Amino acid sequence: MPAIKAFNKALSKKERSIMDKLRSPAAIQSFLDQIKYSAEEIYRSPLRVLRDGTGHCFDGALFAAAALRLAGRPPLVLEMLSNGRDDSHLLALYKTGGHWGAVAKSNCVGLRFREPVYRTLRELVLSYFEQYFNIYGEKTLRGYTMPLDLKSFDKLNWMTEDGTVDLISDRLDELRRFEIITKGMCSRLSPVDPRSFKAGLLGSRKAGLFKPPK
User: Fold this and answer.
1) Best CA proximity match to 142, nearest among 212, 87, 71, 193
2) From CA 139, how far away is CA 170, in angstroms rounded?
3) Which of 42, 106, 138, 161 shows the smallest number of beta carbons within 10 Å?
4) At 177, phi and psi to the nearest 5?
């Protein structure tokens, strides 16, 4: 496992101590919740996320996948897809007792951790639907990709090399996609109510919010 070896070799004593504590999905989520949300249009490898203490949803999901792998789980990610008026969102997947859960870094409160209680990936993705909205209160989640196993990028040392992350993004664009609602359903969607909107953006970094045209 060259990617794991490269990652472990690169860790300082302090960094190794941090990673040794991230042995459960909940612990990994807690770490992601504590780091700064990145508004920069750059990708960070898991190692750089650890060192910079910052990352956006893509960076955070890759870090979570790496941490899950070090804890003995496969490094799986899934991309949730918007209607074009919002960002896509990346999840790190894990499975416990035959049910799916997720770990994620997000600028929005409701798009983070999910307990492993979902029988299918569709169920898991749908659990994000009401909380997936843009700055105009429009519900924007429309679909998701099949999972991507990041082991396929091991030869490129995806856990330590920033340049590999761009290739992961490109590969996600090629994966099979699944819609979760029909066009008719889309046309009947109501806006997010004000209380849910306010709660969902609690503590968000304005610079990191997607800004679609009005």
Assistant:
1) 87
2) 26
3) 42
4) -120, 150
Digitized pLDDT (tens) for each residue of the chain, 214 residues in all = 688 999 999 999 999 999 999 999 999 999 999 999 999 989 999 999 999 999 999 999 999 999 999 999 999 999 999 999 999 999 999 999 999 999 999 999 999 999 999 999 999 999 999 999 999 999 999 999 999 999 999 999 999 999 999 999 999 999 999 999 999 999 999 999 999 999 999 999 999 999 999 8
Per the structure, how many domains does the chain have? 1
pTM above threshold 0.85: yes
Residue 209 lies in a domain: no
Q: What's the one-letter identity of residue 54? A: T
Q: Give domain status of residue 55, yes or no.
A: yes
Q: Report if residue 157 sits inside a domain.
A: yes
Supply 147's token pair.
């999972």
Q: Are 53 and 36 in contact (CB under 8 A)?
A: yes
Phi, psi (deg, nearest 5) at residue 55: 170, 155
Token code pair at residue 78: 């899934």
